[in-house]
Design goal:
Blueprint lengths: L2 H8 L10 H5 L3 E4 L4 H10 L3 H9 L4 E5 L1 H6 L16 E3 L10 E7 L6 E7 L4 E3 L6 E6 L2 E7 L2 E4 L10 H7 L2
This protein binds glutamine.
Glutamine binds next to helix 5.
Length: 176
């Protein structure tokens, strides 16, 4: 099973994969997964999902969790490719830790949101979150750097909580 579907299932819901605008209307919470952000953006546009996602999020009608590539799309538009959606007022720098071989696992400290304490952060060619606006809540840090943030019902994680056995992020997200 796709890891986010598995994590959502473990968190107690019955998830569906969204591939069409009709399926998008059926959900109250949507996960934008990792992958490659320019491809993700291209596919979302090609399948006529981007406009409805944006409209519904801006109406407060859809909660969004973006991991890695998904988080990139949610950041502030600063003219970079792929064009960001400006749903969370934070700069998201792609591939900021280096190439694929510089991917790493490091402890993540939760400050608020899904819980307190530490969990394992899997960073795969991850982006960096920089210059968050005051209205952006820092949910978790790795060292001194923010790695999970939230604004309204939008949550961006630069690591991959779906690849660990800990369903707290998904469970908390479902309550937003
Ligand atoms: N490096 C990818 C990008 O810029 C994101 C990697 C990921 O999602 N794990 O799109």
């Amino acid at each position: 099973m796709e890891p986010h579907l598995h994590a959502l299932h473990s968190a107690g819901c019955d998830p569906i994969e969204v591939r069409t605008p009709d399926q998008l209307q059926e959900v109250t919470h949507l996960v934008l997964p990792g992958g490659e952000s320019t491809t993700l953006r291209h596919l979302l546009d090609l399948h006529h999902l981007s406009t409805t996602i944006l409209e519904r999020v801006q109406n407060g009608d859809l909660a969004l969790l973006g991991t890695c590539a998904g988080a990139i799309l949610m950041g502030r538009d600063e003219g970079e490719d792929p064009q960001r959606w400006s749903l969370i007022d934070v700069s998201v720098q792609r591939n900021a830790y280096g190439r694929q071989i510089h991917s790493f696992i490091a402890p993540v400290q939760w400050k608020s949101g899904p819980g307190s304490g530490e969990s394992e952060g899997i960073f795969i060619r991850a982006p960096r979150l920089e210059q968050p606006a005051p209205e952006v809540e820092i949910l978790a840090v790795c060292g001194h750097e923010p790695v999970a943030v939230r604004q309204n019902r939008c949550v961006a994680c630069t690591f991959h909580p779906e690849l660990t056995a800990d369903p707290r992020v998904h469970r908390w997200f479902l309550g937003l």
